[in-house]
Amino acid sequence: MHEREVLQFRWWMLLLTFALCVVIPSCSKESSKDEASSGGKGEVTASRDGGRKDIILKRMDGTTVRLSEYEGKVVLLNFFATWNEDCKKQVAALNAIQYKYLRGHRLALLGVSMDRGSAAAVRNFVKQHSVTYPVFVNGEQIVNRFGGIRKLPTMYIILSNGSVFTRIEGARPRKFYEDKINVILGRRL
What we know:
Shape: globular
Low-confidence stretches: 11-49
Number of domains: 2
Largest sheet: 5 strands, mixed
CATH topology of the largest domain: Glutaredoxin
CATH superfamily of the largest domain: Glutaredoxin
Structural class: alpha/beta
Helix content: 40-55%
């Protein structure tokens, strides 16, 4: 009987080792390749470009711009939805950041709507909330290039070299965003 328990234990250990070495790392190639979690606070840090420079952002008027046009700048890429209350509350903080930091710096704040359908709802949102930063409407088409999102709003801070510095899930106070920006500016990236 004791020998049987030892064999079962070895079998389970072998299975666990296999799972840890083979199955788990391949579950999410994007997550394991591009992002390292930072304490479960809705943030990730330090990843490579992963082809994101080729992303085409669609303006509300239908014209497009490539993310690569912002190369050399730090980009705050904020995924939001017009119907989400946290996203509505976040606009004031982002407008203030746009005014305080982004003018005259090598930074760009871009809003990317996750709304489906026409740009009319997004256009109304921008007008109603006096959004001062550029807003794009094809979030559903590009979000997976960043590994997807679990919560709105989600902001990716992309360094001037194209790597993701951090992902921030959920609305945060203005000071939180300012602290992140100050870290980047302090590094002179």
